[in-house]
Specification:
homodimer, alpha/beta, Helicase, Ruva Protein, domain 3, Dna Topoisomerase Vi A Subunit, Chain: A, domain 2, 2 domains, five-stranded mixed sheet, two-stranded antiparallel ribbon, 7 helices, 7 strands, elongated
């Protein structure tokens, strides 16, 4: 008897269908979770719902990537690049702002950062030209950089990226190090516990690519 | 060496922290999923992000509960209550609009609905007065209702609600039925597969509370 009255069948109002479609685009959100969110939202005060919507739009409009290091910033230059209390002679190269945050949380690094916003991945068609690496090179040549700490993920793409940067940096004579022992191979910088990450920063070793 | 530079430590910009806090309020979303969403949102076009924010606000502002049956509606009366092609003599009582949708998807019911927006749950302090049951009673007395199909969840609260409604309806002499065999006890109407739900609708039995 399934479907005998199917022609008249009621669906969610268009506003709900639209919201479900929009929410389902979010990473990790499927139709079921989107439905839970919609019914939760309908039960909230209008002002609370507006606060969520405003936070979404404002963060998208109010944030940019730092002109110097591509970290998240609310102004042209991020708080770290603009800080006089940081050591601007030591640059830590990371894949993403999340990795930068993970390192900052350890409180074990007082230099500045360079965020690649990605990694080298031939499988996904991402080469060195997509990673702002030439800009990093020219900074190293122009500024009095003493050390580059490469803190890309210890997985295939991250290691490939580290190797590429290491090779590029070799002619400049700058000291190059890779974050050290302690990070389990195959995992990601973002998820490592603080103590392991701190240890790996302190045990970094100069490498000869 | 953990935390030796902790005083200067960089955190997410306030716009991100605000958005993380807002997103973490959503059901099923923790700090980690919120971070994934934020970085995904930062990578989207501004117009797409606005479309999401607009969908959230519009659905909250543009939707209400039907004056007659408490189903989701974009106008005072929902599409089902307003439809002349439905059988207005048979009312199906459900706990939530999600249950209504689940029944509609089977295409096996051509009557109208009455959405309780909850169930009787003494443990949570919800009694019959919170469920618009008096309104249902007066409709049944005033309108030419022939049958009330009780489709509350077959769990403790749902059964209690069904029992209460059945007892209340007994003096009116209206035919009362409970959706039938096929739904596993302890589960929820919302999650049952369509065929089982269709079978349970077709095998509904008149009950004598």
């Amino acid at each position: 008897m399934l479907g005998q009255y199917r022609e008249n069948y009621f669906m969610y109002p268009k506003l709900i269908e639209n919201l479900l479609e929009q929410l389902s685009k979010l990473p990790g959100v499927g139709r079921r979770s989107a439905e839970r969110m919609v019914f939760w939202l309908l039960g909230q005060k209008t002002q609370d719902v507006k606060a969520l919507a405003d936070a979404i739009v404002q963060s998208r409009e109010g944030l940019c990537f730092c002109k110097l290091c591509h970290n998240l910033a609310e102004a042209e230059i991020c708080l770290i690049c603009a800080s006089p209390s940081r050591d601007h002679k030591i640059i830590c190269v990371v894949e993403s702002p999340k990795d930068l945050l993970a390192i900052e949380r350890t409180g074990s690094f007082r230099g500045i950062y360079y965020v690649l916003l990605g990694n080298i991945s031939p499988a996904d068609g991402r080469g060195p030209e997509d990673l702002h690496i030439p800009k990093l090179m020219s900074r190293i040549k122009q500024e009095a950089i003493e050390e580059v700490v490469i803190a890309t993920d210890p997985d295939t793409e991250g290691e490939m990226t580290a190797l590429y940067i290491g090779k590029e940096l070799k002619p400049t004579g700058v000291k190059v190090s890779r974050i050290g022992l302690g990070i389990p191979v195959g995992s990601a910088v973002e998820y490592v516990d603080m103590s392991t990450l701190a240890m790996s920063l302190n045990s970094r070793r100069q490498v000869d690519f």
